[in-house]
Every structure is written in C-alpha cells, then in structure tokens.
Design brief:
CATH architecture of the largest domain: 3-Layer(aba) Sandwich
Helix content: 25-40%
Number of domains: 2
Structural class: alpha/beta
Radius of gyration: 19 Å
CATH superfamily of the largest domain: P-loop containing nucleotide triphosphate hydrolases
Low-confidence stretches: none
Mean pLDDT: 91
Oligomer: single chain
Largest sheet: 6 strands, mixed
Shape: globular
CATH topology of the largest domain: Rossmann fold
Number of helices: 10
Distance between the termini: 26 Å
Length: 255
C-alpha cells in the first residue's frame, strides 16, 4: 500500500543536543502509529517536525507524494496534517459547537470569522461549517452537549472536544501529542473507543504517548525512540519482546 505520510532521515538539533537523529518511517492510510520512548527521547520534537511547528535541520516530510518540508504549520494543516495538543483549554465565550466550528478554518473559503457572519452570500458556507462541526462532535460522543458552555465540561470531555475541533478540519492525518495525559481510567477507556472507531472510519493517526499499555491497546504499529534515535519499529507484541526497548526502559515499562 502506498504511504500516506513518509518521514525521511529527519534530524533536529538544539544547540549541541541532537533531539531527533536521522529518523525515517512511513505511515499507511488508516494506520494508527504509536510513538513511544523514555523521557527526552525526542517523541514530541519529531511530531512537531512533522506538523511544521519545528523545522528539521535535515531530512524531509512527504505527504501524499508531496514534499512539505518547507511548508508552514498552517499550510500543512490545510493540507491535512492536524495536531491535537496536550492542552485541552476551550475557547472562552463559545459553546461546545462553536469550539468545534473553529476547526473549520482550515478549509473554509472566507475563513472562520467571515463564515459565521449571517450575510446572504455566506449562509451556505455557514451551514457547511455547522454541519462539519456537528459531525465531528458526533464522532467523539459530544453531540448531545453541542449548546453547553465549553468551559463547564470536565477535563476528559475537554480532551474529546479538542479532538473534535481537529476532526472538523477534515484531516488526512491526526497528530496526537499525549492525548491521555492526566485522564482517569474511565476517560482513557472512552478515548480508546474513539481512536479505534476513527480507525474504522478510515482516519490515520500518529499517537505520542507515555502510557505504554494504552498505546499497545490501540496501535497497529509502534516506533520507539531513545535519545533521538529510532531503535525499534513493529507491532506492539514484537516491541514488548525487543531487547533494545527493554534496555531503554530499564525493564520498567510494558507496551
């Protein structure tokens, strides 16, 4: 199967530190790829290089056959690389639906702010924005809360709302930076259901996470970084037995 996303020999330096060192991998359509490693391994840095928030010093990022390495993060987002950050802070003054609608800025012709103005020439786009936002809320199970103030949601639902906002962008690849950080067991179980359901619907996902058991439960394939280097790439059951991975985690983590 042709790769949807390909990273070739990505390297990122911070002064004298090499945070990501010559990392290459491919991502197939509909795949959930877990990205794990000890603290300081370079996981989030690599994800941010893919998204365009940080520029890699060498190497390239290929999306659907196009080299997007020189593109800004905004242009990459419009092309389909959508990032869900660890922060789940909602946009104050907007309800749940309004927060999800903000994600539509990536594809609206006039932009989000213009699209919600109820002028005659913009009603069609406004309708499309609302429908896309409602569909995104439905995907994460928040449709029934569409008109509730977003600031009243508990933390677990705020994380789901952040995912819905990104789904409203109509992404090709979801880039998820530690999505279960700070969540309770029940909230993690709900998020696991959401990710697996999105996979069934054809969404492609890269998941950076410290919770190894969660990654092992949802990922088709796992990449392991250690001190910026890619030391393992394979299905979760293979990664569990990999001697380099065990050594990197000092035998204290299970995938």
């Amino acid at each position: 199967m042709k790769a949807l996303l390909e990273v070739r020999q990505a390297t990122r330096r911070f002064a004298g530190l090499i945070a990501v060192r010559d990392v290459s991998f491919t991502l197939a359509p509909g795949e959930i790829l877990g990205l794990i490693g000890p603290n300081g391994a370079g996981k989030s840095t690599l994800l941010h290089c893919v998204a365009g928030f940080r520029r890699h010093d060498s190497g390239c990022v290929i999306l659907e056959g196009k080299d997007v390495s020189s593109w800004s993060s905004d242009r990459r987002a419009r092309a389909g690389l959508a990032t869900v950050f660890q922060s789940a802070t909602p946009i104050g003054g907007l309800d749940v639906l309004g927060n999800a609608m903000v994600g539509c800025h990536a594809w609206t012709r006039r932009g989000f702010a213009a699209g919600i103005v109820k002028s005659r020439g913009q009603r069609r786009e406004e309708h499309a924005i609302r429908e896309a936002a409602r569909e995104a809320l439905e995907l994460v199970g928040l449709a029934q809360l569409a008109h509730r103030s977003a600031t009243t949601l508990p933390f677990g639902q705020l994380r789901l709302l952040a995912i819905a906002r990104v789904l409203a962008q109509r992404p090709r690849v979801l880039l998820l930076d530690e999505p279960v950080a700070g969540l309770r067991a029940g909230e993690k179980a709900r998020l696991r259901e959401v990710f697996l359901d999105l996979k069934q619907r054809g969404f492609t996902q890269i998941l950076v996470e410290h919770d190894m058991q969660f990654v092992g439960a949802v990922a088709d394939r796992v990449l392991v970084l250690d001190r910026g280097r890619l030391i393992a790439d394979g299905p979760p059951q293979q990664i569990r037995r990999d001697e380099q991975v065990i050594a990197a985690y000092l035998g204290t983590a299970t995938v």
